């Protein structure tokens, strides 16, 4: 791929995720202000793919990404990237921590560092920013539309690029936090199954009634499919109208996943397949003998023998 969109400006955690993709450092990288805009660029052919945050180990799912991928012209997730989240407090060169009166950052970053801020710079007022990187640029008054601030909570990448003074490192309240990013592209040939894969789908709730969610989940559990994420999202069509964004362990080429999706499509014909792709971290789920591909194939042959026994 020659071109990528990502949530900017330059220096965000999203760019850090993109730079972990082989060849991305030499490709054209286009910073975009929103997930919806990035996906529009893919659909129009302006870029080949986009990298977007989809889940954080502290804050949970990123609703803007989940909603943008689940609506509009279909796209495919083809890769996931996991980036450790560590924040620095960065200010203008020469400033001391005691001089900081205003701190800019994205609301998610503020929520993940609030304990450290209260304990170390309680005198500082919070100034919301569109991204952690935008806050860093605002320290130098180089972020149009962002108010100037004394310091920013941002990624080490952008602080180093801008030459900011690092006033403190590793200020996150939850050491070991991670953000999961996905690479999204136009539909095409699916990534080959590796044995360590995820499949993502969006399942509209067909009817809001008791047991409707259980019926959806049963299609996975009865086939031995584990779910690593499930989130309820409003469709925007009124109260009580929802879809479920689901990550299942396995690839659509696996018989148990394919059979589950066939059953789900009967329950919810507007089911959206969003991709099967390798996991960022190798994990090979335990597959019980009765849910292995061989068991599905043998069952199909057994039934075929019954149906054609009189021919």
What is the C-alpha radius of gyration, as a whole number of Å? Answer: 23 Å
Structural class: alpha/beta
The biggest sheet amounts to:
6 strands, mixed
Give the total of beta strands.
Answer: 15
Portion of residues within helices: 25-40%
Total domain count: 3
Distance between the termini: 52 Å
What fold name stands as the CATH topology of the largest domain?
Alpha-Beta Plaits
Instruction: Please name the fourth-level CATH homologous superfamily of the largest domain.
Output: ACT domain
How many alpha or pi helices?
Answer: 9
Specify the overall morphology. elongated
Strand content: 25-35%
Low-confidence stretches: none
Report mean pLDDT, rounded to a whole number.
92
CATH architecture of the largest domain: 2-Layer Sandwich
Class of the largest domain in CATH?
A: Alpha Beta
SSE topology string: EHEHEEHEEEHEHEHEEEHEEHEH
Search tags:
single chain; alpha/beta; D-Maltodextrin-Binding Protein, domain 2; Alpha-Beta Plaits; 3 domains; 6-stranded mixed sheet; 9 helices; elongated
């Amino acid at each position: 791929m020659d071109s990528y969109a990502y949530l900017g400006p330059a220096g965000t955690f999203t760019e850090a995720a993109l730079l972990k993709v082989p060849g991305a450092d030499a490709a054209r990288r286009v910073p975009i202000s929103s997930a919806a805009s990035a996906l529009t660029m893919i659909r129009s052919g302006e870029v080949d793919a986009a990298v977007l945050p989809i889940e954080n180990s502290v804050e949970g799912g990123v609703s803007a990404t989940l909603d943008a991928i689940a609506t509009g012209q279909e796209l495919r997730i083809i890769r996931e990237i996991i980036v450790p989240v560590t924040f620095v407090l960065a200010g203008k060169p020469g400033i001391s921590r005691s001089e900081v009166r205003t701190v800019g950052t994205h609301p998610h970053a503020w929520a993940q560092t609030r304990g450290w801020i209260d304990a170390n710079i309680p005198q500082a007022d919070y100034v919301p920013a569109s991204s952690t990187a935008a806050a860093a640029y605002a320290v130098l008054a180089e972020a149009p539309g962002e108010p100037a601030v004394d310091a920013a909570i941002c990624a080490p990448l952008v602080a180093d690029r801008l030459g900011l003074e690092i006033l403190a490192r590793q200020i996150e309240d939850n050491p070991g936090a991670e953000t999961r990013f996905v690479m999204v592209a136009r539909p095409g040939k699916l990534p080959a199954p590796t044995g360590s894969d995820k499949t993502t789908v969006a399942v509209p709730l067909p009817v809001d009634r008791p047991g409707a969610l259980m019926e959806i989940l049963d299609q996975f559990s009865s086939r031995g499919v584990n779910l690593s994420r499930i989130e309820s999202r409003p469709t925007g069509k009124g109260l009580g109208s929802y879809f479920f964004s689901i990550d299942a362990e396995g690839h659509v080429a696996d018989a148990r996943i394919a059979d589950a999706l066939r059953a789900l499509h009967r329950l919810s014909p507007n089911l959206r397949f969003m991709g099967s792709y390798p996991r960022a971290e190798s994990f090979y789920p335990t597959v019980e003998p009765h849910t292995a591909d061989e068991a599905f194939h043998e069952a199909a042959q057994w039934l075929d023998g019954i149906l054609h026994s009189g021919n």
